[in-house]
Structure formats: C-alpha cells, structure tokens
Design a protein that fits this description.
Structural class: alpha+beta
Number of helices: 10
Strand content: 25-35%
Shape: globular
Number of domains: 2
Radius of gyration: 21 Å
Number of strands: 12
Largest sheet: 5 strands, antiparallel
Strand order of the largest sheet: 8-9-2-1-10
CATH class of the largest domain: Alpha Beta
C-alpha cells in the first residue's frame, strides 16, 4: 500500500526515507548532484577522483541521516591506489570531504571510470560519535574499490546489518566532464523481516534498472525507491542535504595556538605570515604579522 507525504522539491540535494516489506526494510534514497558538483568545482576534481569522492560523499550524507541530529560520522576510505585516502565528515545531512589526489583520470576497457584501480586495496573505517563514553569505530576491507560494494560489505561485516548500497554519478559530455547527476540508495533489512519478503527484495534488486540509468533519466529519489520496491512502500520523510564547511579563521587560530611558541616565532621571522588552506573546502586563510604576534602574545 502506498502512502505519500507532501513532496518538498529540493532538486539537487535531498533524501527520502521509506519503509517496505511490512515495515521490516528501510530505504534511504538521495539525490546529491549539487553536493558532488560543488566539490568537483572547488577541488578541480578529475573524473575518477570525482566519482570516488562523490560516491563517498553521497554515502556519508545518507548514513548521517540514519542517526540522531547531533551525531557525527567520519568515514575514511584508505586505499593504496592513486586517489589516496578519502576523508568524509557528516552530521544530520550535512557532509563535507576530500581526497588526497584530485587529479586522477583512469578509464577502463568498458569506457567507465576505473575506480577499482583508482581506489586500490585497503580498508574502510567508520567512526561514529554517538555521545557515548567513546566513539564507535568499525572497519572492513575494500573488496572492489567501486565504493558501493565496499559499503555493502562494511554494513554486513562490521555492523551486522544485511544491506544493499547503490552509488553512482553521470558526467556531462562537455570538455570538463561536469557532473550532470549524482545520487545513491541504502537498503537495510531489520529484525523481523520474513524470509519470503527478503527473497522478494533480493529478486527486485537484481532485476531493477541500474542506478546510473535512473540518474541519467532524471529519476527523483522517490522514483528510485519506487523502482527498488516496485511501488510497495511507505514514505516517511523527505529532507534537504547540504555541504557546508565548518572552517573559520578562529578555528585555525586555535590550531596555531597548539604549536610551540618557538615554532610561531620561526614562522613570523622567516615567512612573516602563515597561509592555511582548509582540506574540506579549499578556502585559504591568511595570518598576517600582526595576527602571528597576537598568537605569540597569547602563549605568554
């Protein structure tokens, strides 16, 4: 039976949560075109780096919506491929992240981005600050480098939640290979799901249209859920996703204050200023001689 809530139109960055199979399976589907396109621009990402970072950003945004509003999620995809380490931070639908090497372009024999080689072998680590005594940390090996399969494996092995993950993107045919669409889904089986319902869901997932095709055709998040469930779902929530950085000159000032006074004096005497670039948004902050002198005085 289909039940609809009012549709909030947030074309480029939003998520829909739904239940299916008698409310024993939960589904999150997200459109993250704006977020991935924004990161492609600020980091000047080449297509393979863009695909890897974009898929992990989408996964982080989705996962952050499975927890309480103030819970913080950190994801580290630590592969030995040329893309290097991917770092993601997400809270309540807001996600930011970066990869070590934004300039990777690898095309496989099928004409698609070769993420398997780009990401390489290694592990995924997820650290969740749930405001308990200490953060929860889980990890699993990278089994494909395609990101979606790796997170499917992570959920099953590390969190013991049978899951299915889909992550994809579509590039424009322009010279810059600009992101045209991006998104993903997370399907998780909860306790109480009947065997026949699970088999039905698995059959549907194996036969449905590929996510890349859905994104290329302009599917909404709700239409992706409809494709996964063959129309048998209950929509629970629709919410906006964002990619706002938390950096500020004040935050970096606190970081500089952790340096030894002698180190600050050396920077002042040799460089006369300090330039700090935020890894998450590529914004640069300048600390002048006067700024450095204030920091040095604060160390007294």
């Amino acid at each position: 039976m289909l039940k609809y809530l009012s549709v909030i139109k947030m074309k480029d960055n939003y998520l829909v949560k739904a239940y299916c199979m008698h409310e024993t399976v939960r589904i999150y589907a997200a459109i993250t075109t704006g977020i991935v396109k924004h990161n492609q621009k600020i980091f000047n990402l080449y297509p393979t780096s863009c695909a890897a970072l974009g898929r992990t950003l989408t996964m982080g945004a989705i996962m952050s919506c499975t927890y309480k509003n103030d819970d913080t999620l950190n994801i580290y995809v630590k592969g030995d491929g040329p893309i290097g380490k991917i770092t993601i931070e997400a809270t309540n639908g807001n996600v930011r992240g970066y990869c070590e090497n934004p300039g990777v372009l690898l095309i496989g024999k099928d004409g698609k981005q070769d993420l398997s080689f780009g990401v390489g072998n290694g592990e995924i680590t997820v650290v969740k600050d749930l405001h308990l005594r200490q953060p929860f940390s889980g990890s699993s090996e990278i089994i494909s480098g395609e990101i979606a399969k790796d997170f499917t494996y992570y959920f099953t092995k590390s969190e013991q939640i049978p899951s299915a993950v889909g992550l994809s993107e579509v590039f424009d045919d322009d010279e810059a290979a600009t992101i045209k669409a991006a998104g993903g889904f997370l399907v998780q089986v909860m306790p109480g799901c009947k065997e026949e319902d699970l088999l039905k869901l698995e059959d549907r997932l194996s036969k449905m249209k590929p996510l890349s095709e859905m994104l290329k055709e302009g599917y909404t998040a709700l239409e992706i859920i409809n494709e996964i469930t063959d129309g048998d779902y209950i929509e629970l929530e629709e919410r906006e996703l964002t990619s706002n950085c938390k950096c500020s000159k004040e935050r970096f000032s606190r970081g500089l204050l952790t340096l030894k006074k002698s180190d600050l004096l050396e920077i002042l005497e040799q460089d006369h200023k300090a330039l700090i670039t935020c890894n998450f948004c590529n914004k640069q902050y300048t600390f002048t001689e006067d700024d450095l002198k204030e920091l040095i005085d604060a160390k007294n």
